[in-house]
Amino acid sequence: MQSSVLLRHTRDRLNSLRQLVEPPQIEVLPLTPEDYEDLVNLVLEFPDSYRRVVDAEFRRLFTERSRSVAELQQVRCELADMADRYTAMVQSVEQDPALRTPAGQQPLFRTSLAKLSDAVATLQRDKARVLADWPVGDAAELAQAAIEHEQGRCIPVDEAFAQMRGISVEELHRRLETHKAKRKEYGWE
Amino acid sequence: MPYTTRITLSANRQINSWGLAEPIWMEVLLHLYQTLAANPQAVLLSLPNFPSSMLYYFTVQDPEHADLLHEFMFQVTYHADEQHLDVLRGSYWRHIGGIPDN
């Protein structure tokens, strides 16, 4: 299956960043303070790219409805994997003594370094959204859903919605009738 | 004969986590409780190589912001008793822009 252009581009961008950050590269080409600042700033920009690709892939769920379960699982897996590789990369930027030395000498770098943790947190939130709200889970999750289904661990949808709001099913049905009367007002009829 | 729609606990938790405004939340209920149950064949889409489940897509236009769309997709399966439809998992996305073509 061919991934989307944006997904491939984002993955390539991450790979490019990782190549810059990997210790052998740093040893061959020692970073100047300016390079280091640029590198940290490039790393900090990545979560925005990640969010764009997550947004785009969620959008594609609704515009390309013919993809197979395997294709959907692959996209989900790629998005999650990208987030994990980014997190590992940031940890290496934060922890590598060769990289931290110039940071220790420049207050500006220390500020940039502190932003890395926020960048990882942002990215991990987006990853969590992908894992939670992607329409098709991985094999283990599909198996779990099948077990719940087979064992009858499902509840009627009106009961479930009533529980969400902490109201009785009767009250929910009253609200539903009120809602139906308002649908025209909302432009839904 | 209309079906009764049921929902797994995990899908229930998903919907609860989406933080939907009341009219949108009610519309989700209406879709699952009534539209889907009344005529599942008309609204469910099959997935290639995945015979055990189908997908139910629907879009709700935000009543206050016309260009804001709330898009939903639910993985649904028929129960063996042929009386129940079980919702296994959901996906929700807010989208700013026009109504999608399909």
Which terms would index this structure?
heterodimer, A: 189 residues, mainly alpha, 9 helices, B: alpha+beta, five-stranded mixed beta sheet, 3 helices
Give a description of the structure.
The complex is a heterodimer of chains A (about 190) and B (about 100). Chain A contains 9 helices and 1 strand. With about 190 residues, chain A is mainly α. In chain A, helix 3 (about 35-65) runs parallel beside helix 6. The two termini of chain A are about 40 Å apart. In chain A, about 25% of the residues are buried. Chain B has 3 helices and 5 strands; from the N terminus they run βαααββββ. In chain B, a hairpin with a 6-residue loop joins strand 3 (about 50-60) and strand 4. The longest helix of chain B is centred in the N-terminal third of the chain and has 17 residues, at about 20-40. Chains A and B meet through helix 3, helix 7, strand 1, helix 8 and helix 9 of A and strand 1, helix 1, helix 2, strand 3 and strand 4 of B.
List the helices and strands and how they pair.
The complex is a heterodimer of chains A (189) and B (102).
Chain A: H1 5-21, H2 23-28, H3 33-63, H4 69-95, H5 97-105, H6 107-133, H7 139-150, E1 154-156, H8 157-165, H9 169-182
Helix pairs in contact in A: 1-3, 1-4, 3-4, 3-6, 4-6, 5-6, 8-9
Chain B: E1 4-8, H1 9-17, H2 22-38, H3 40-43, E2 44-47, E3 50-61, E4 68-78, E5 84-96
Concise synopsis of the structure shown:
The complex is a heterodimer of chains A (189) and B (102). Chain A has 189 residues and is mostly helical. Chain A is built from nine helices and one strand.
Query: Largest interface here, residues on each chain?
Result: A-B, 44 and 51 residues
Q: Tell me the number of helical segments of chain B per DSSP (H or I, 4 or more residues long).
A: 3
The percent range for helix content of chain B is 25-40%
Low-confidence residue ranges of chain B: none
Strand order of the largest sheet of chain B: 1-5-4-3-2
Note the gap between the termini of chain B: 28 Å
Assembly category: heterodimer
Q: What's the pLDDT, averaged over the residues of chain A?
A: 84
